[in-house]
Amino acid sequence: MARQERLLRQLLILWVIVYSVSSTSQCGTDEFQFDTLCCQLCPSGTHLFKPCQENHGMSKCIPCESGFFMNHNNSESSCFRCSLCRDDQEEVAKCFQNADRECQCKQGTYCNSENCVERCLPCSSCPNNKVIRQCNATMDTLCDLSDSESGNPSDPESRMPCFHCVCLSESLKAVVTTAAIIIIIAAFIAASIALGFCVYKLRSRCRDPQPSTGPSAGSPVEESKSFQQVNEVMMV
Ligand SMILES: *[C@@H]1O[C@H](CO)[C@@H](O)[C@H](O)[C@H]1NC(C)=O
Ligand SMILES: *[C@@H]1O[C@H](CO)[C@@H](O)[C@H](O)[C@H]1NC(C)=O
């Protein structure tokens, strides 16, 4: 019995811990945590003045002052200051309590970086006025340059046939050069080997003339023969 009681007590403690953790950390999506309470967020166009006094209660919110905005549900202590348009931009939407001012490049200029961090650039004009898409505040003019140089207007690839030719001839040149170098080196090696072989042959021939000349002219046999003849003559 005592063991069961102890187990029950342990389970109860565990449940209390789990409940307290989950109840303090699990506020709704439109709520924020304030001490141990879940308070409702302030709607856009307002900011938090005083958090709620009871769990899931309404917070005290006050509207953004003039020149400030808040564009989402929040628990911020103040609204954001409205951004200003640069001198190369024009205002396209006023600043409201719930939305910032919107600016874009002035007519005839564009800026294609995200949030237009660079200055606005003048729109390009197309040769022969062949425009595919007019310039707007975020994109430059798109020109049709297809037949300005080559004779094929429909194929955009044909705009740079020379580029392809250059690429091809460059690679071809490299291949030919490499092949030429290899051939020259191979020829040099072959010539060296042949020359070395010839020199070796010549030297060995000078050192030992026996193999080519047999026992013919001026041989010791013949010499002794003639010597015998001389002896015979002298005897007579
Ligand atoms: C903002 O809060 C309101 C209620 O105050 C709710 O109806 C709305 O869906 C919330 N908006 C977002 C984006 O959570
Ligand atoms: C400019 O034109 C592009 C392509 O048509 C479009 O996606 C973009 O929204 C336009 N920008 C403006 C500010 O109208």
Automatic annotation (TrEMBL):
Residues 1-23 form the signal peptide. Disulfide bonds join C64-C79, C82-C95, C85-C103, C105-C120. One of its GO terms (biological process) is positive regulation of apoptotic process. TNFR-Cys repeats lie at residues 63-103, 104-143. The keyword Cell inner membrane does not apply. PANTHER family: TUMOR NECROSIS FACTOR RECEPTOR SUPERFAMILY MEMBER 10B (PTHR46330), TUMOR NECROSIS FACTOR RECEPTOR SUPERFAMILY MEMBER 22 (PTHR46330:SF16). This is Tumor necrosis factor receptor superfamily member 26. It comes from Mesocricetus auratus. The gene is LOC106020873.
